[in-house]
Amino acid sequence: MIRRLPFLLAVIASFAVSIPATAAEDWTLVIHGGAGTLERERMTPEAEAEIRAALRLALDTGGTILSQGGSALDAVEATVRVLENDPNFNAGRGAVFTAEGTNELDASIMDGRGREAGAVAGVTMTRHPISLARAVMEKSPHVLLAGTGADRFSRELKLEQVGPQWFYTQRRFDQLQRFLERENAVDREAAAPHPRDDYFGTVGAVARDAHGNLAAATSTGGRTGKAWGRVGDSPIIGAGTYADNRACAVSATGAGEYYIREGVAHEICARMRFLGEGPQEAADQVQADTLALGGDGGVIVVGADGRWAFSFNTRGMYRGVALAGKEPVVAIFGDE
Questions:
Q1: For residue 7, pLDDT beyond 60
Q2: H-helix or E-strand containing 35?
Q3: What is the pLDDT of residues 35-52, one digit of tens each?
Q4: Is 202 an annotated catalytic residue?
Q5: DSSP reduced 3-state for 122
């Protein structure tokens, strides 16, 4: 089932759909902090309050840039940096652990003006992988750097470096221990019941600035217990991130192997550009196609005309939207 923001956000949604963003003061910012089995009964009131506050802070940070006439590119980078600093999300400081007990971070960013893009995979020492991805875009001839090479590039540019203790959180470490216990169980059927990873904590932002330019950014720690240098969709341009002023900007969070196979972010933009579909229609269709392959998760979209959408086929998604002249709104659960 494809879910979207319900009546709580209906007024804002109808505003975004019915009035294209053409005035100089108009801008749009949409964010996500991961999708999955997010239910009220599984979350303490304190945790819920923390997450809502973090989403609001991210919206306020990017929204301030856009309200002052700043670029969509600056806004999505700054927004994602806020989420990378927050241990509630699987990105930056709250990244999950690999099977070897390390943190390997992926990120990508794209500018819709000329479709320039930058991405990094498997970085280990950069505090803000999204800023390293932007540096790849702007200060190298490449699009994607990985592993030790990306770490070296980050050091050469003197981006802020941190040690493993910065990324360590007890909650994520405990998740790894439970994962390893299950993997090492001699009798799998006798092992404690476990759902597969039911929360994709990738963070992302898409924006349309007052000049009509689009940008998208995505950052993640990947999946708990990942091995062999696994890379998901987040640093893959066209899968987890895409921006094109002719169509839309997209950031995804979900089962990366499926999102790569479907080319989710580019597919949404292609449907909007060539079929004339709106962001909700295009996102819902591509999400349905991805679910048919076996993958679940969510996407955020903002179109060239300022219309925007959330689409997710999970029980919830950390999400929020800020529009020029409107009060930002955040949500977590599927029934909001």
A1: no
A2: strand 28-36
A3: 987 888 889 999 999 999
A4: yes
A5: strand
